[in-house]
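Section 5.1 Outputs to date
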Amino acid sequence: MSYFKLLGFEKEPFSTSPDPNFFYLSHEHENALTNILIELRLKRGLSVILGDVGTGKTTLSRKLIQELKEREDFVFQIVLDPSFENEHIFMTALARNFEIYSLFPAADASPSIVDIREALERFLFQKGVTENKIVTLIIDESQKLSEKSLEVLRVLLNYETNEFKLLQLVLLGQMELHAKIVNIPNFFDRISFKYTLNPLDLKETQEMIDFRVRQAGYKANMNLFLDDAIREIYYYSKGYPRRITMICHKALKNMVLKKNKFVVDVTLVNEIIKEEIKSGWQRRESLLPKNSF
């Protein structure tokens, strides 16, 4: 039997998989999600979300997809790894994602970049103007985009009517993405909404832990994580959601293994932290500045 079932959970509460049903919407995450949805609805083109490793960008993208699935007027795709070798491979991948090979001039020939670009343009006009759909492309790990790929996206963002952009683009990436796009003025200037996700504060850390515990089906009245333990988790994790999740998972697992523990207290958390420090596995990166770019 899994450890979480022994503790009265229906599901694993602290999985690191990007399940949108377990995504705690902090103030910043909710702000980012709400603004992205507004930008998409208004068809304004380009939104960029930055954040350090473990701040919840990937799960935010899954939450966005969950929201878009409930709206019939959206046509959307997500690219999880945009590290394409060249422009042709990137454009071919976009065509494959949106399933527009039927628009190519010859089905048995390898389409040129011009063929693919024209097919994408026809697709965007067909969906955006004739069918009144909102075509949305979400790219996770966008810091991996090459300059050539960014140029492809810039050209696609040029397709528009007098009222709106035909392609809605959402880029989510680590801070290196900022260094790339800030040096491409004709791309940077197209950003309609820009935002930086920062780590959680102490109150949000407590809310996140409680949210995930209850979301996993825990129904007991007692608090599984004591306040002192949560405070120690926050200070050690620096408020990074992924790190909070990892420590909480270890805490519950160790609680089961010890057999004489019924709650996660500060002693248990300190044991986990000391073991990580002793093994040299603690994270050493500096924090993001608390501001948007």
